[in-house]
Amino acid sequence: MKENIIRDIKLASSGHRKIEWVKRNMPVLSKIEEEFIEDKPFSGKRIVMSIHLEAKTAYLAKVLKAGGAEVSITGSNPLSTQDDVAAALAEDGLHVYAWYNSTAEEYNEHLNAALDIKPHIVIDDGGDLVHLLHSTRQELVRDILGGCEETTTGVLRLRAREKAGQLLFPMISVNDAYCKYLFDNRYGTGQSVWDGIMRTTNLIVAGKTVVVIGYGWCGKGVANKAKGLGANVVVCEVDPIKAIEAYMDGYRVMPLIEAASIGDFFVTVTGCTKVLTKEHYEKMKDGAILANAGHFDVEIWKPDLDRLAVERKIMRNNIMGYVMKDGRVINLLAEGRLVNLAAGDGHPAEIMDMSFALQALSAKYINDNYNSLDKKVYDVPDEIDRKVAFMKLEGMGIKIDELTQEQDEYLKGWGE
């Protein structure tokens, strides 16, 4: 394996402080770390991670290492890696291959370097590691027991591969667990997207028209937080059921081509490609702000912006202004990449506490049960989802009721 590929090991002290801060606010993962230290479930196993390399992810990597694993880690997005956090992990003995603002070639090099560990378990965010293992790095598949996928985009890729009969090892869809999408996708994305937008633009949201494109769990969170900030929210959808839901949640619903001329902020949350394109840019008002909260930078179609613009100029850090022929300026945040990570610190630590607890326990489930798993996409087992929920309640000091035996039998029966 190659030596660590990081910017500067001297940045490690700052990274350690960030990791320690999030650890103090992630009680569920801290409890799992205690269990892993005692049980060492991953002894002799190698785990590769491609995930947004920041402090909360770093703590997950350290928890897996505490469980006995040899861990290699790289970023899942060129603009979400924090160089001081990468340095801290390298100093702690993990194999680290990532730096901020990597080129496409460097990003691919980092992914391959991380895979050189010859992993037994894969933890992916978006599906790039799994893609390499099914294409140019198939020689490594013989050692793979299985893995976990963090986000919607990666799960879509996995299910498409499974449907085609081409999935080479079992994967658990962490994204589809209740304790993930109900909290991470909704509350985490909702808060962190607006953290990133407001930090980057320094503009008020109240009174503005916010166009949220996609009303899945992430879109629900983005729309809800925008409403809370005082915005007038428009939702654009292709799913009729989600469109009705958005309408009944109190938002205006209309086609994107109509919303294009009235929006002040546009946030794409679809997981699809070419969502905002030439026909929309031509209708947008001067000063419109575009932000993407989907995994890949294909939702806001940049080639059309480049073709329409007569000039590109940096307006502020992480804001590129595209000057149109008529003088209008359309502002793109964070190169159209995940705005909450490329222009912010990602989801709050308390939210990722649940998501990364699911990752850790799902990886353990793969390790314990791989012999009985087929080459398919599995949901997170219900007992893991509920364990994380109960641990989270305990961490927050909240107690809840329990069914009596009579109530439990009543709910399971049909007689009364």
From TrEMBL:
State the Gene Ontology BP annotations.
L-homocysteine biosynthetic process; one-carbon metabolic process; S-adenosylmethionine cycle
All residue ranges annotated as the S-adenosyl-L-homocysteine hydrolase NAD binding domain in the record:
185-346
Enumerate the residues binding NAD(+).
151-153, 185, 214-221, 237, 293-295, 340, 347
The source's superkingdom equals Bacteria
- Residues involved in substrate binding: D125, E150, K180, D184
- Tell me the cofactor note: Binds 1 NAD(+) per subunit.
Q: In which pathway does it act?
A: Amino-acid biosynthesis; L-homocysteine biosynthesis; L-homocysteine from S-adenosyl-L-homocysteine: step 1/1
Q: Name one Pfam family in it.
A: AdoHcyase
**A GO term from the CC aspect:** cytosol
Where is it chiefly localized?
Answer: cytoplasm
Instruction: Tell me the SMART domains matching this sequence.
Output: AdoHcyase (SM00996), AdoHcyase_NAD (SM00997)
Localization, per the record, is: Cytoplasm
Cell division keyword on record: no
Keywords recorded for this protein, A-Z: Cytoplasm, Hydrolase, NAD, One-carbon metabolism
Q: Name one GO molecular function term.
A: adenosylhomocysteinase activity
Which reaction is recorded as catalysed by this protein?
Answer: S-adenosyl-L-homocysteine + H2O = L-homocysteine + adenosine
Q: Which cofactor does it need?
A: NAD(+)
Q: What is this protein called?
A: Adenosylhomocysteinase
Q: What is the lineage of its organism?
A: Bacteria, Bacillati, Bacillota, Clostridia, Lutisporales
